[in-house]
Write the structure tokens for this entry.
Amino acid sequence: MFKIIILCIAISEFISAQQWDYNFGNSTGSITSGTSYTFLPDPQTGGGTDTRISIANRGGSFNLENQTISFGDGVYLRGVASTSNGNNRINKYSLFDYSGGNTFTIRFLVRLGNSSGGSIGASSGSWVFAIGNGTFYNDNNSLNSPQVFAGLQFQFGASGSIIASYRRGGSWITFPNGTFVQGTDYIIDIYGNNSSAALNYNYLTSQTVASYTYDVWVNGVLVGNDLPKGQLANGNTIDSYCFYGERSISNVANIFLDDIKYTNQISMDPLPVELNSFTASVIGSKVELKWQTETEVNNYGFEIQKSESGNRDSQEWQTIDFIEGFGNSNSPKDYSFTDDLTLDNNRNLTLFYRLKQIDNDGTFTYSEEIKVELLLLNGFDLEQNYPNPFNPSTVIRYAIPQSGNVKLSVYNILGQEVKVLTEGYKEAGSYEVTFDGEGLGSGLYIYKL
């Protein structure tokens, strides 16, 4: 027995602000001297092509490492500070002359410590982050204050301490003690506004960054609110950033960097735990839940909750399991859970699922609920896809009353098979699959079970 249904792909185009992610690619290696524009890969999406590494003759290095320590996602960058300071005496990584603007949002994952990411023995030196516009981002010199809009300085001290400061005008101003320590991962978000108007964004709740100031968030905590900018002129474009290390006796001050995200506007998107997707699939008598986070800050984990009523205000939500989170992550993370059901074959069943995301401090938020229908199987069924038309993906549901071999395929209007969505032995039950039409032209398509 088979069934055929028509679906339609609609292709649309849009233009958005320039944004890019940078996770240092897949290659490993080290550079210990000279200047290179090719050691680092270019950003995977956007961000121009001008990456640069410079190493002074005062020791130190930059290293692309693939999980030599557990940090970030795949390959990360480890920088080792030079022993001196001043022009031509620092070790600098920069990305410059990208498509900028007078506002920006940047997020990066960072750890400070010894060569293995720990807190023992790295008692001297400093690392500086600066963002702005000018030749400083394409030379071997130390800080050029008139070219800096925002800056952070991390000074290494005894017993794993870090003295952290921010740039205000031509001076460094110290953050409260304890904001940073060695050997700990931090996600830093900076919202920079070099325009004449205050701008709004979302982070936990609605926030505002005043004109010619910047906000600094560390692991979901606002540590700097409306900080006065550096000496970059009002309204100037911000199109370059760098990290540089200096003054480290015996080259002990290390910085670990990964998962840099940038956009040339005040972003409305980043949240401490940003849920990218949450889906459910019925596989026989089981419900498979899958979800993905885009970023995580202080994420303790997820309670998985189920209800037959779907009433958020009722007491009928049942916690059925807990999945531990990744803590701090600036790259997508995937989760899954399978709910093995005991079904009553004499009735249809509608279930609702939601996630209770819990932070390390006990605060929590709920995801949207998703609805799952388990239907009494009186026969073979293939439903209309939803949504239809769609771009780029749609969901197709089907049910089989008895176990057997199943093939679900998509055809163009010429009758040519363009994609097989599922093929193989299936237990009796209800199923759903996602059809991604990426790479196919707009128009009518047919799917057949």
Observations:
- The longest strand covers residues 286-307.
- The chain has a mean pLDDT of 87.
- The chain has three domains: 4-12+376-448, 19-263, 273-374.
